[in-house]
Design goal:
Number of helices: 9
Strand order of the largest sheet: 3-4-5
Order of helices and strands: HHEHHEHHEHEHEH
Number of domains: 2
Structural class: mainly alpha
Distance between the termini: 47 Å
């Protein structure tokens, strides 16, 4: 309705804050997820002096951080950001998964698409900055997948991105492991949760035939091919997470 009437907005606060986090985080080697987690946890970021950024870029153009510095320098000049502390208070940081992951040193990754988020039509939007953060997070995700033997994968409410990122990560990990004369990841169990009914198929029995509509449910089919035993549960995603949280608290 907003788009058709020409009233759909560009979200300034969201776009600016995410780019502040990701661009500042890149200078410290942080990917998308950890950069956002740090900004929320620390109630803001500290930006370098623009003159120092320019000096570093000119001094060593081949430095691995040059592109990240250039992205930030351009944004600072165009958006009027100044060097120093940028305070962004988060009163509910204890409810942030990314902030808690950053606080506890747990890998947390973000896998962005280009063009489908509300930040994409803002002047600060930088595909290179977000893509860089996403690249580092994909590698971080792969590093976690390498330790999955005998572990558990839980996918809640991701019909495309979750299974596809996991598929490519596990493929990379297994290729590297086999090349190093190590066995592929094994012994893991995969649990998938979503609102969809799963096509009426018992996925614990394997993949359905192509003549069955359930075969075309990507979030089930992809995971069923990932080497471990896969089970599907139909449930409201938010309700599942809340019940899981309470169950974990009772068990702690």
């Amino acid at each position: 309705m907003g788009v058709a009437g020409g009233h759909f907005g560009t979200w300034h606060e969201t776009a600016s804050t995410i780019h502040l986090a990701v661009m500042a985080g890149a200078l410290d080697g942080l990917g998308y997820g950890r950069a956002l987690g740090r900004l929320i946890h620390d109630d803001g970021v500290t930006l370098p002096d623009p003159a120092e950024l320019a000096r570093l870029i000119a001094a060593d153009p081949a430095d691995p951080l040059t592109a990240a510095r250039a992205d930030l320098l351009r944004a600072m000049r165009e958006q009027g950001w100044v060097g120093g502390r940028v305070e962004i208070t988060h009163r509910w940081k204890h409810a942030s998964i990314l902030a808690e992951a950053y606080r506890h040193g747990v890998p947390a990754t973000v896998h962005p698409g280009i063009g489908y988020d509300i930040i994409s039509n803002h002047p600060v939007f930088s595909g290179s900055a977000l893509g860089r953060g996403g690249e580092w997070d994909f590698k971080l995700f792969g590093g976690s997948a390498d330790g999955l033997d005998g572990g558990v994968v839980l996918s809640v409410g991701s019909a495309i991105m979750g299974p596809q990122v996991f598929e490519k990560s596990l493929s990379c990990v297994n290729n590297i492991r086999l090349g190093a004369a190590r066995p592929a990841v094994s012994g893991h169990t995969i649990y998938v949760v979503d609102l969809q009914d799963g096509g009426g198929w018992d996925w614990s029995q394997g993949e359905p035939p192509k003549t069955n509509p359930a075969y075309y449910l990507r979030f089930c089919k992809s995971y069923s091919r990932m080497g471990g035993a896969m089970q599907y549960v139909q449930c409201d995603n938010a309700a599942f997470i809340h019940h899981l949280l309470h169950a974990l608290r009772r068990a702690a």
